[in-house]
Amino acid sequence: MTTSSGIHPTVSADEPVDSYTLHHSAYVTRSALEDEIREVFSDTWQYVGPLEKLQNPGDHIVATLGGTSVVVSRNVDGVLKGMVNICRHRLHPVALEDGSSKILQCRYHGWSYRLDGSLLNAPRCRDELRLNKAEHGLVPMAVETLGPWVFANLDVHAAPLIGLLDDCKDFVRQMVQNSKRFTFRGQTISPIRGNWKLFVENAIECYHCPLIHSETFAKAFKVSNGEYISQVHSNVATQHGEAKVIPADLPNGRNANGFHFLFMPPNSLIGIDDFAMYALRVVPTSPTTCDVVSDMYVDESMPADAMEEWVSVYYAKTIEEDVEAVERQQAGFASGAVPHGRLLPESENAIAFFESWIRARTCR
């Protein structure tokens, strides 16, 4: 093979770069992850949790964006506020978990903050340190909602989230409309022995579905070539698969909508079908590991037994199968024996889109 442009030292100059995966080193090295924390996670919109958990003043949720802990709270005026979850004293977190409280207080030395992030009290500082409280509030960040989903961006001046969806507004509007019948059920955190990008890439293509998910996802939805629709837009990717299995009668004569999916780079994925809905983010924990933080929502109007089977088989089991594949794949990238994988231009178009997005930010 000839060499091209230095981005892919073993890629043919006669073929487009996006027909190859990123170099194997992007999935295993500390330097690659450090680049991504700095260039990918520092100024992008990422899903942080369900709006349902932020209904009342004092309610707050905690999440991790890249390597930074953040907290989103409902202020006393009813407005959502987002802050970096790091005390301005000695950098301990001010909130350890989701909950509800009148203030946010660091459990290390007791510095406390109002729900809008402004500093309320710093013990002993009046006697020992001339501290300007106005300059020592929690670092602010941007927060927005999309239907029942809350998103945050470490860049407090980030452009509005909705601007990313200009060329798929109708698709997203339908997802938001469909989401209204769902209730938040609970959150799971799944540690995975695989690079965060590998899980994302697995989630945004269904080329693997007929084989790996033959008794799970592929049994519930049409996933054959030409049936499962994967579209790449300017800033996001969407997917749709028609339903094959309806385990219980839909209420009020409702027609089956099948599976709708939205991917917002770098790491936010939302899926909705006729029975359940999930929203998740993939959080890197090391160059070769990640956590998948998944919020599950259910349609409580559906029969309980049918719902339990649907969630356990067509979601939980499907994710188990994906995790197994990703962890085996990680070993292949870690070996370094094959510098790059290949990508199918149609069946894996969302991966090509995602990796091009990564390359543009990291110059990889």
Describe this structure in words.
Mean pLDDT is 93; it is low at 1-9. This protein has eight helices and 17 strands. With 364 residues, the chain is α+β, with helices and mostly antiparallel strands. Helices cover 24% and strands 26% of the residues. The strands form three sheets. The chain has a seven-stranded antiparallel β-sheet, with no helix packed on it. Strands 11-17-16-15-14-13-12 form a seven-stranded antiparallel β-sheet, sandwiched between helices. A three-stranded antiparallel β-sheet has the order 6-7-8, with no helix packed on it.
Give descriptors for this structure.
single chain, 364 residues, alpha+beta, seven-stranded antiparallel beta sheet, 8 helices, 17 strands
Strand content: 25-35%
Helix/strand-derived class? alpha+beta
Measured on Cα atoms, how large is the radius of gyration? 22 Å
Can you give the helix content as a percent range?
A: 10-25%
What spatial form do the alpha-carbon principal axes imply?
globular
The total count of helices amounts to 8
Mean pLDDT: 93
Name the strands of the widest sheet in spatial order: 1-10-9-4-3-2-5
The total beta strand count reads 17
- The stretches of 5 or more residues where confidence is low (pLDDT under 50) are 1-9
Task: Report the major sheet.
Answer: 7 strands, antiparallel
Elements, N to C (H/E): HEEEEEEEEHEEHEHHHEEEEEEHH
Beginning-to-end CA distance, first to last residue: 20 Å
